[in-house]
Amino acid sequence: MKTSNKTALLFMLYLAQGLPFGFQATALPVLLRERGISLAAIGFAGALALPWFLKPLWAPLIDRYWSARIGRRRSWIIPLQALMVLTILAAVPVAAHGAVIPLLVCIFLMNLFAATQDIAVDGLAVDILGNDELGPGNAAQVAGYKTGMVFGGGILVCLSARTGWEGLFLMMAILAALPLVVILRHKETDDQTDITDKVPPKPADFIKIMLTALRSPGAIYFLLFIATYKMGESMIDVMFKPFLVDNGFTAHQIGLWVGTWGMAASLIGSVVGGWLAVRFSIINALFIAAFFRLFPLVAELWLSTIVPTASQVVGVTVAEHFFGGILTTALFAYMMSRVDKRIGATHYTVLAAIEVMGKSPGSFFSGFIAERIGYTGLFSIGVAISVLILLLYFPLRRGEEQPLTG
Known about the structure:
It is a single chain. The chain is mainly α. It folds into two domains: about 5-195, Growth Hormone, Chain: A (Up-down Bundle); about 205-400, MFS general substrate transporter like domains (Growth Hormone, Chain: A), CATH 1.20.1250. The chain has helices spanning about 5-35, 40-45, 50-55, 60-65, 75-95, 100-130, 135-185, 190, 195, 205-215, 220-230, 230-245, 250-280, 280-305, 310-335, 345-365, 365-390, 395-400.
C-alpha cells in the first residue's frame, strides 16, 4: 500500500473523530446558551468529553478481540464509525425539537464512539506505517483531527445560520460517513498479515509488555518528556486569550485570529512537522521543533510587557500555532516509533493519555497563578519550563538506539 494511500486513509478517519469534539468545544456552549442554560451547567458540559480521558481503561479490548476475517482494526473501526454516524443522525430530530438532555446524551455517545474508534485507528496507524512513514502518517493524524474540529466547531456552525442546528448535524453525519466508505474499501490483511495472523495477546501479556517497556533504558526520560513537553505552553495558551481581552481586543478579533488564521497555521505546521520527521531522525526533528517553539512563547511573554497592537498579536498567534503544529506532529511520530506493535492500540493510547494529563495541570492552575503574579510572571514560568524541557534531549538522544520495548 502506497504511503499516500495510507496517509489519505488516516486523514479521513481522524477527521471523523474531530467532528464531535470540535462541535462540543466550540458550538455546544453557543447552542446551550441559546436554550437558556446557565453558565455553570455549560461549564459542566465539558464532562461529555470524559471518554477521551478514560479510553486507556478499555484500550486492551481493542488489541485482544477482533475478527480475523474482517481485520484486526477494521473489526472495531467499521461498527464504531457506523454507530457514530447513526448517533449524529439521531441528534437531527433532537436538535429540531430543542430537547437539551437527549442532545447531551447524543453528544456523549458521539464522544464515546469517537474515542474508542481512536484507539483502533491509532493501532491501525502503528500497524501499517513504516519507520520512514511516521512523519507523513502523523501529519495526516494531526491535520485530519484538526480539520474535523474546524468543520464541527466552525464551518458547519456558520452554515447552520441557514440550515438550523438540525441541518448542522445532518451535514456532520454526511462528513462522518465518508471515512466509513474509505475503511470499507481498505484491505487490512494485505498490509498486516504478520500482525493479524498472530494469536491475540492475553491479559498477562499486556502487563508483561508494559512493564518491560517501563524498565527499558531511557524509558523514564521518554515518559517525562511526553508528560511535560507542552506544560509551559499550555500555561501560556490558556491565559493568552484573557490577556488579549484585558488589552481591549474583541471576541470577534480573537476568534478570527486564533480560530481561523491560527488553525490554518497549525495545519500547515503539522505538514511541516511530518516533513521534518522524514528529513531528520525523529528525535532530532522533535527537538528542532521544541527549540523553535520557544520563539513564539518568548514573543507572547514580550507582548505581556507592552501594549500590543493588532498586527503584533496576529503575527505572534500565527507563529505560535505554526510551531505548535510542527511540535505536536513530531511528538506523535516519536511516540509511535516507541510503541510495541503486539499491543499497539493499547500502548499508544496509554502514551497519548500521559501526554494529555501531563499538560493539563499547567492549564488548570494558570488562572490561579496569573491572579497572583500577573500575566508576565505566568508567561515567564511557562517559558522557563519550556527551556528546561530541552535538556531532556541529551539522555533521550543517548537512548535513541535502544527502543522502549527493550
